[in-house]
Design brief:
The complex is a heterodimer.
Chain A lengths: L2 E5 L2 H5 L11 H4 L2 H7 L15 E8 L8 H6 L8 H9 E2 L2 H4 L10 E7 L1 H6 L5 H6 E7 L28 E7 L18 E6 L14 E4 L6 H7 L1 E2 L2 E2 L1 H7 L19 H10 L11 E5 L2 H5 L6 H18 L6 E6 L13 H16 L5 E6 L9 E5 H5 L5 E8 L7 E9 L8 E6 L13 E2 L2 E2 L3 E6 L2 E11 L5 E8 L17 E9 L7 E6 L16 E2 L23 E2 L14 E7 L30 E6 L7 E4 L6 E4 L2 H17 L6 H9 L15 H4 L17 H4 L5
Parallel strand pairs in A: 6-11, 6-12, 7-11, 12-13, 13-27, 27-28
Antiparallel strand pairs in A: 1-20, 2-4, 2-5, 3-4, 7-8, 9-10, 14-24, 14-26, 15-23, 15-25, 16-22, 16-24, 17-23, 18-19, 20-21, 21-22, 29-30
Chain B lengths: L45 H14 L25 H13 L2 E6 L3 E10 L14 E11 L3 H14 L3 H10 L5 H8 L7 H25 L4 H4 L18 H19 L5 H21 L4 H22 L4 E8 L15 E2 L4 E2 L6 E8 L6 H13 L9
Parallel strand pairs in B: 3-4
Antiparallel strand pairs in B: 1-2, 2-3, 4-7, 5-6
Helix pairs in contact in B: 2-6, 4-9, 5-9, 6-8, 6-10, 6-11, 8-9, 8-10
Classes of the chains: A alpha+beta, B alpha+beta.
Chain lengths: 730, 392
């Protein structure tokens, strides 16, 4: 069979009148091939009960005060009472009780999640349904958790209110991660009871009566609580942890999924220990609230299901903190997760939602500060980013620049590239067009949104072999606050193991992305990122990370060392490889440094980030600071708890740098200090130990933020000197 | 290495070959049971033989008639002290096995019997004594599960495969005997605690013979016989699956070692718990590797725990033992292996479970104790610091 490019039928997927705020990935994700990959690990696909496919979405309400708030939106008050439209709406859209019953001071919350039937997306694009367009600014879609973890028996319980004695601590530590050993000795008080107030296992089953309608919650207290389970598993004074987890229902070997907690090393346990476990000279008493992401979310490193789960997780931690006492405590949340592709200007839906939640929470509860700490990402040398300036287009033949994208064989998940364009208003022409050439030379028509020589460019193109789609190129517009066009190139897996899946696979090798300047202005540039597509630690092989394979990119210096600073004429860059969910305004972003050599870990990603629309300066340069992620170039990783009490393992990556700062911030908040971005930046800058300057370029503000935070004692109160405040770029 | 293993067993079958006791691990040397490597200097070579001929010729001198020397008394266990460890091991092994008998029924059960033999007192003058009076007492019975159970169990083996990258080192290191692992918990050393290791070798040998015989009779398939997607990460052993030999070995070692240390006041319940956890981990690792169903470990645990107590009774002048039955026919197919269901740390006893692990009556035999097994037991106790036995 022959490979052939055809125009994408956008209307079939996005409806007649495109809803501007719909996820740029929707054209792919809602197509037949996209749905197949999004739901690939769902055993229930296709649905056996004949019901419509359900999606989980992150919604941004446009003007919660003026038009509609979350509760009214959920009730379908967009439509007249008693009409068929309203009944349809109530059938199509389920909004968790958590968002409908928020405290009054939070009633105008903008970012909420919902579970919707597939028809919802067509409703969005049907003209006449302008009410929806008026109510919603953005919709980001993902896959729901496994059906057995979903509550299907009506709405969840009302929000709980504080009970019992007031909380002693002024600060609560939250973690959103995978593989959290919630029975571990490191997370217990001296009396042997757990410090973990609750853990929400987002794909745990059977589901609990929880206000988010999915997953299982285990609380510290109560008959089936963690303390009871711990006591029940004690034998001769020692908790039998295999027994504990098995009774807690998280070690069921009849299930095929990855069981991080049965491994010696687990991401969430290591990180939570660094963030809040007892260390010599420091025994934190802060209560802990945990969110364990679904196995499928961690397995899917592209982050396609991350936004909804993280936002629900943040809300869960915050709402839980309210239950702990009459005075809302401060909360610091560690999120050592990351993706690569995105607008990188802080306007991705997840980043905006985090910023918005933090701001609203602090306004609603003046006693509480909220800090979210994120890792900077490990892709510095990944060759996953390219940047092409207008002048580079102008000096190229036909104003065309080719970006060579190498896709590996045996990649079992789709590969994605996002090419982000400069700011334009909605409906304006795309300043660049893109065509894609397969490894064996089959070129698509040019895709974009402009009229060239009397011909309108097509918005999308599918590469087909028979009925199978192997690649989709589309031009999408990310509505404000992003306000930029983006080309999305999706390539199907290059290996298929599942007999029910595609019989054909995409070819591996170099795919050429041919970008041509139409109307870029001087000084403007185009930025491309490959989406993350590797396999998480301990998980079965899934993705294989593709990269930009440019001849001019110099990987090694004359002595054979890996170059860490961009050099030469290549359009493929190290700088700007920052974690795509770590470019927001309020989040605290931490990269990695070698504790002995005092140099950035070679993988630790940095800025610059992209400028925001209508903004004169930058809202951040890169990470806020570096913290140890390896003991030395030879002794990789830093030591912290393994899954079983008493065990110690090494793990590395910016994931393990972030929790050191989470810990410091918790100490700051407990002492009544700010512990915000500015404080972390200052801590990096005015490190108490004088540090050697390091080779040129390695410790730029883009790579290292405020600087290297090393030699941090477990508890390190610091006052931010007034005179340093002005120098901070925020 | 354990040279007591019978021929034909490959290096990967867990019964022989790559043991944890040889080489530079501090566990090798004149261990009680080793047949090779314990003979001291290499004598039996042509060079040395030729040299010895010449040496004798050089110094032998005129023949002198030596004085008469009486042999040691007949039948004294202490005489074993004069033996080399390898030959001693054969005597001990023969004694241990001398009271075992097997039978099976075609419906799928294997029975292990203890042979109760009452020897009649004989005077020295008799050329051939009166034969003993023999009766057979139940020791342990295993009934195999049906195919529905194995079919459900294979999903568990698939689930455990997730842990392969985490457990591969242990799985490979546990291909041979488990002494490196028990030695690490109990601080055993070939030169410091040779008698304890000899006792454990004996226990291991008992488990091998009982488990292999049961495997042979029950003829149960391996997980990779049931599904082409199990793909074990080690050579699948060349014999049938249930009961798991590793589980039997590990639980007999845990029981014997704990009872021995406890008799010397060297172990409390916490030590016992650690031995049981270790035994269970070794058993589960075989499921992770893809060569055993969890139910194989269950049957192995019942067999190992029962035989462990039986061996301790025979070696410590016991007069009775507890008989047990594993009934695979009533095993719940989806049930995983959980050692805590089988052994109660408080009572230090095996526990009956539903209808698939059944406690049988206590069996009495005044001749259960064996003088030479007891001799080895006391040797092991003395090197662990136990009080000398009270003569009664």
């Amino acid at each position: 069979m022959k490979l052939q490019w055809n125009e994408v039928d956008r209307e079939r997927v996005r409806g007649k009148d495109e809803f501007e705020g719909l996820d740029p990935y929707a054209t792919w994700s809602l197509s037949e091939v996209g749905k197949k990959h999004l739901f690939s690990s769902d055993e229930e696909q296709p649905r056996s009960d004949g019901k419509a496919l359900e999606f989980q979405v992150l919604l941004e309400l446009k003007d919660p005060k003026g038009i509609i708030n979350a509760r009214d939106f959920a009730e379908g008050k967009l439509f007249e009472a008693g009409t068929e439209e309203r009944r349809d709406w109530q059938r199509l859209v389920k909004i968790p009780r958590a968002y409908r019953d928020l405290p009054p001071s939070l009633a105008d919350v903008r970012h909420i999640t919902a579970i919707v039937e597939e028809e919802f997306f067509r409703e969005l694009g049907i003209s006449g349904s302008d009410r929806l367009g008026k109510a919603l600014a953005r919709v980001t879609l993902s896959r729901p958790v496994l059906r057995e973890a979903m509550r299907l028996d009506g709405p969840g319980p009302r929000l709980r209110r504080p009970e019992g004695q007031p909380l002693q601590s002024r600060v609560v530590v939250g973690i959103i991660d995978d593989g959290i050993a919630f029975g571990h000795e490191q997370f217990r008080y001296a009396d042997g009871t757990t410090r973990i107030e609750s853990i929400w296992l987002q794909d745990g089953y059977p589901p609990s009566a929880i206000e988010f309608d999915y997953g299982r919650e285990l609380s510290k207290r109560g008959p089936q609580g963690i303390d009871q389970l711990l006591a029940g598993s004690r034998r001769d004074g020692v908790v039998d942890e295999d027994d504990f987890y098995s009774r807690a229902g998280v070690l069921d070997f009849a299930r095929p999924e990855h069981k991080a907690i049965a491994w010696r090393r687990a991401h969430g346990t290591h990180i939570l220990d660094l963030a809040t476990g007892p260390k010599p000279g420091c025994t934190p008493q802060w209560p802990i609230v945990c969110v364990q992401l679904p196995v499928a979310t961690t397995a899917d490193t592209s982050g396609a299901t991350l936004a909804v789960k993280v936002i629900d997780g943040i809300w869960y931690i915050l709402l839980k903190s309210l239950e702990l006492g009459p005075t809302p405590p401060s909360v610091v949340i560690n999120l050592s997760y990351g993706t690569i592709a995105g607008p990188h200007d802080g306007t991705s839906h997840l980043e905006c939602a985090i910023d918005d939640i933090v701001e609203r929470w602090e306004r609603a509860f003046p006693s509480a500060k909220v800090r979210v700490v994120i890792s900077a990402g490990n892709s510095h040398l990944g060759r996953i980013h390219a940047r092409i300036g207008q002048s580079q287009f102008r000096s190229a033949p036909e104003h065309s620049v080719v970006l060579p994208w190498r896709i590996l064989p045996d990649d079992r998940t789709p590969s994605y590239v996002e090419v982000w364009l400069p700011h334009r208003a909605a409906g304006q022409d795309s300043p660049v067009k893109l065509s894609v050439v397969t490894p064996d030379g089959c070129e698509s028509h040019a895709v974009g949104h402009a009229r060239i020589g009397g011909t309108q460019l097509k918005r999308g193109s599918n590469l087909r072999m028979g009925d199978d789609v192997l690649c989709q190129v589309s031009y999408e517009y990310a509505s404000p606050p992003t306000g930029r066009g983006v080309f999305l190139v999706a390539v199907s897996p290059t290996a298929a193991m599942d007999e029910s899946g595609a019989k054909t696979v995409a070819p591996f090798g170099i795919w050429q992305l041919k970008l041509t300047d139409i109307s870029l202005k001087p000084g403007e540039h185009v930025s491309a990122w490959i989406q993350r597509d590797d396999t998480s630690y301990g998980f079965p092989t899934a993705g294989r990370q593709s990269y930009f394979d440019d001849r001019r990119y110099q990987r090694f210096d004359a002595a054979g060392r890996e170059e860490q600073v961009d050099c030469g004429p290549s359009i493929v860059k190290r700088e700007g490889s920052l974690n795509a969910i770590a470019t927001g305004e309020t989040t605290i972003v931490i990269g990695g440094v070698l504790r002995k050599e005092l140099l950035p870990a070679k993988y630790s990603a940095g800025g610059p980030v992209e400028k925001q629309r209508d903004s004169a300066g930058w809202h951040r340069t890169g990470p806020d600071a570096l913290a140890p992620s390896d003991d030395s170039a030879v002794l990789g990783g830093i030591l912290a708890a393994g899954t079983r009490s008493g065990s110690v393992v090494a793990m590395n990556g910016t994931s393990v740098a972030a929790p050191l700062i989470t810990r410091w911030i918790a100490g700051q908040l407990a002492a009544g200090h700010e512990g915000d971005r500015r404080a972390v930046n200052c801590l990096g800058r005015e490190n108490r130990v004088p540090l050697p300057p390091g080779p040129p370029g390695l410790l730029s503000a883009e790579r290292a933020g405020g600087g290297r935070i090393v030699g941090l004692p477990p508890h390190h109160p610091l006052r931010v000197p007034k005179d340093l405040d002005d120098g901070f770029q925020s | 290495m354990s040279t007591l293993s019978v021929g034909g067993m490959g290096p990967l079958d867990g019964m022989s070959g790559m043991d944890g006791m040889s080489g530079a691990d501090g566990m090798s040397g004149p261990v009680g049971m080793a047949r090779k490597g314990s003979a001291g200097p290499a004598i039996n070579t042509p060079l040395v033989a030729e040299a010895l001929i010449r040496t004798r010729d050089g110094i032998v001198g005129t023949w002198q008639s030596p004085a008469a020397l009486a042999s040691p008394d007949v039948g004294l266990p202490e005489n074993l002290m004069r033996w080399s460890p390898d030959m001693r091991a054969i005597v001990l092994e023969g004694e241990m096995l001398s009271r075992l008998a097997y039978s099976h029924d075609p419906s799928g059960s294997v029975f292990l019997w203890h042979v109760k033999a009452d020897f009649n007192q004989s005077s020295a003058a008799q050329a051939w004594p009166m034969p003993p009076t023999v009766s057979y007492l139940p020791l342990v019975a295993l009934t195999r599960p049906d195919k529905v159970v194995f079919n459900k169990q294979v999903a568990l083996v698939h689930g455990y495969a997730d842990l392969r990258p985490d457990r591969a080192t242990e799985i490979l290191a546990q291909l041979g005997d488990p002494f490196a692992f028990f030695g690490s918990v109990a601080n055993l050393h070939a030169l410091r605690t040779p008698w304890t290791l000899a006792l454990l070798q004996l226990a291991l040998r008992l488990s091998h013979l009982a488990a292999q015989r049961a495997k042979h009779m029950l003829a149960c398939l391996r997980p990779s016989d049931l599904s082409p997607q199990i793909q074990p990460i080690i050579q699948v052993p060349g014999h049938s699956a249930l009961p798991s030999g590793h589980s039997t070995e590990a639980f007999i070692c845990a029981t014997v070692l704990y009872q021995l240390m406890k008799s010397c006041n060297r172990a409390d319940a916490g030590v016992g718990a650690q031995f049981m956890r270790l035994a269970a981990r070794i058993a589960v690792n075989r499921t992770v590797a893809g060569v055993h169903f969890p139910v194989d470990s269950v049957a192995g645990a019942v067999l190992g725990l029962t035989l462990g107590k039986y061996l301790v009774a025979r070696a410590s002048k016991g007069k009775e033992y507890q008989a047990w039955r594993f009934d695979g026919a009533s095993y719940p197919g989806q049930q995983d292996f959980d050692w805590k269901l089988h052994y109660d740390l408080t009572t230090e006893a095996q526990t009956p479970i539903e209808s698939y692990v059944v406690q049988l009556p206590v069996q009495s035999d005044s001749g259960l104790g064996s003088p030479i097994l007891n001799w080895l037991w006391e040797k092991a106790r003395s090197e662990l610091g136990g009080d000398p036995p009270q003569n009664s």
